[in-house]
Amino acid sequence: MPDKPRLLITRKLTDAVLMRAARDYDVTVNADDHVFATDELIAKCQDVDAVLPCHSEHFSADVISALPKRLKIIANHSVGVDHVDLVAAKDAGVVVTNTPDVLSDATAEIAMLCMLGAARRGAEGDAMIRAGKWDFWSPAFMVGRQVTGKRFGVLGMGRVGQVAAERARGFGMIVHYHNRKPVPEHLAKGAVFHDTVEGLFANSDVLSLHCPATPQTTGIINKDTIALLPDRAILVNTARGNLVDEAALADALESGKLFAAGLDVFCDEPGGNQRISALKNVFLLPHIGSATEETRDAMGYRALDNLDAYFKGREPGDRVA
Ligand code: DGY
């Protein structure tokens, strides 16, 4: 029997995923789950045929140029691939895959949590009780915004955006969206298409971001585009932090232009944005959109499916480069 391909798994994955990986690959696992520094990542990659990283490992053009010739595939445990320089990978002949579909439900759930947490002041209420400061009630106390009947704007009507739209409909919201092109009606399900970002923003009481981070979308939420939103709108971001100019967002939350924001992702991770964290009208989570037991297994299996296909000489189903 030929030797198993050598595989580096950069972070701690679920037991089920690690067991399957060990069955089919000669696996090196990052046992204590720390984030590899760039030099360490390069060093760890030197004697493997494949790497299974998360979005926490950055494969810049420099890192890719330092990979050994034997390393042929980066099988990501993420749908987002903004941590990999896809052009450099393609030029170097390194295959890159991701894990779409399997995290759409979990991420859409977190988008709903962020929306409701922001609209109904969830973090503020929780913090008040934990601090022993809940000593008052009145009809005027902690009044939030109801989402029922409001417009739910989806920026990026891909897989996650479509599920988020479905969930928002469950709250009686009217879905509007912008995408590079309209999606077929059986997926749009009556959602109103806007061919410009401006059109969508002007029609979003809640704006939820579901587009990938690319040079074109970096900073797409900024002073000028926030001004297009209806007054007292709510921003939800479960996609990538760098879609948002966080200083402009903090300004809009402080001035009351935005009622609130629900954020699962930040420009600096881990950590977040101190100015935003100091505000009351935000509901914040530490990038846990896909963090459910079911989805972590499914993401790991999907990454392994892509590796299996590659090493059996087939085209990996989720090849992005
Ligand atoms: C993704 O899959 O892109 C999530 O952000 C988790 O990495």
TrEMBL record:
| Descriptive protein name | D-glycerate dehydrogenase
Q: Which GO terms describe its molecular function?
A: glyoxylate reductase (NADPH) activity; hydroxypyruvate reductase [NAD(P)H] activity; NAD binding
- Is-annotated flag, keyword Secreted? no
Tell me which family the UniProt entry assigns to this protein. Belongs to the D-isomer specific 2-hydroxyacid dehydrogenase family.
Q: Which organism is it from?
A: Thalassospira lohafexi
Keywords associated with the record: NAD, Oxidoreductase
Question: In what residue span(s) does the D-isomer specific 2-hydroxyacid dehydrogenase catalytic domain sit?
Answer: 16-320
Domain D-isomer specific 2-hydroxyacid dehydrogenase NAD-binding: start-end pairs = 114-289
